[in-house]
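Help needed: design a sequence for this.
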């Protein structure tokens, strides 16, 4: 795969460009075996994936560009090459047991890799016109290698269904975002490999019909991540928090559906402070309507209905050089309230064929 980032800056009618290319070459082989008992109530499966991977990033950065905008030229190289190569094997196994038709218990283990994307390693600063805070990628970033365990229980009932899971992960080369001072007036925010980490938590989902026209789905996730053996003290510690979601779908007898998607974030503890110190709740609203035998579909979506989606953090960080302690309050707001209108039309007989199949399946087909 290949990703390419090209940025152009014009100053005094002169064009300056930065060019970053990220290449991934991955060769992999798979093998999987599965065994089902005679009563078909238990399944054993196991497999392995072997891969040889090579990732290469080539950055051609015009240093004149940074001098024009007051960036410290000594802190950013004119040309940076990123290269990592490894060969790994990732085993996995799963045991699934069904004591009855509606209940499932399963447990499993898998090894996996989380490779950084181009945004994580691109050394070109994101915010060119704010030279006091440089947000950039890390050209020396390595992949995360993960050993994951899971235990899950699920049930299907006539009017509702649910599932709950416990999970644990051991992570090598944990990736964290961090900020350091370059000078008295300039800091850089980038991604770092901070050492070994463990991640444990639980998640659950419940889906039910409060009324025939009202479907509700509740999901929740609690996590706790700890890192140690890091080179910087402010990267050693615990991340923990809770995230919840409430999805409601109203189906109207005259046609159309209204979807309300609510998300909740508790204050999340990080090694240097708190993210969402007051918590956060936001809402997305969608209305869908199909016309002309499902040939035409109209949807109207409102994102961030409360216009409050932002990532706020309060941190107290000690720099590894100089022992300077800084108290920071940061806000990141990706977008404001946004309205989307989507119109989709199906050509051919797909819409009519779908209606005919639905009538046949429900026993309401008329000869």
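Sure. Designed sequence:
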């Amino acid at each position: 795969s290949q990703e390419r980032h090209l940025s152009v800056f014009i100053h005094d009618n002169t064009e300056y460009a930065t060019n970053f290319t990220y290449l991934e070459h991955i060769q992999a082989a798979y093998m999987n075996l599965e065994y089902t008992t005679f009563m078909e109530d238990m399944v054993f499966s196991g497999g392995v994936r072997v891969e040889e991977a090579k990732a290469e990033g080539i950055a051609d950065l015009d240093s004149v560009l940074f001098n024009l905008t007051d960036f410290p030229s000594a802190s950013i190289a004119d040309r940076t090459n990123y290269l990592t190569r490894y060969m790994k094997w990732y085993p996995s196994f799963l045991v699934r047991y069904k004591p009855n038709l509606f209940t499932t218990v399963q447990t499993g283990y898998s090894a996996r890799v989380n490779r950084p994307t181009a945004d994580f390693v691109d050394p070109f600063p994101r915010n060119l016109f704010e030279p006091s805070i440089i947000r950039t990628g890390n050209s020396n970033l390595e992949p995360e290698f993960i050993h994951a365990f899971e235990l899950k229980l699920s049930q299907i009932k006539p009017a509702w269904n649910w599932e709950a899971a416990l999970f644990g992960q051991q992570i090598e080369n944990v990736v964290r975002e961090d900020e350091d001072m370059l000078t008295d007036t300039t800091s850089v925010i980038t991604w770092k490999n901070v050492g070994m980490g463990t991640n444990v938590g639980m998640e659950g989902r419940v889906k039910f019909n409060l009324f025939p026209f009202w479907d509700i789905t509740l999901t929740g996730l609690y996590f706790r991540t700890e890192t140690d053996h890091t080179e910087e003290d402010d990267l050693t510690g615990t991340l923990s928090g809770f995230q919840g979601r409430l999805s409601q779908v109203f189906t109207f007898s005259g046609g159309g559906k209204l979807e309300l998607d609510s998300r909740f974030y508790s204050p999340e503890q990080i090694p240097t402070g708190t993210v969402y110190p007051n918590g956060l709740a936001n809402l997305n609203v969608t209305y869908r309507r199909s016309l002309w035998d499902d040939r035409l579909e109209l949807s109207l979506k409102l994102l961030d209905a409360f216009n409050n989606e932002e990532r706020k953090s309060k941190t107290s960080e000690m720099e590894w050089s100089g022992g300077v302690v800084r108290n920071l309050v940061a806000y990141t707001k990706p977008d404001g309230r946004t309205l989307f209108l989507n119109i989709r039309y199906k050509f051919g007989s797909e819409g009519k064929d779908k209606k005919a199949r639905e009538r046949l399946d429900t026993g309401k087909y008329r000869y």
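Residues 362-367 have pLDDT under 50 and may be disordered.
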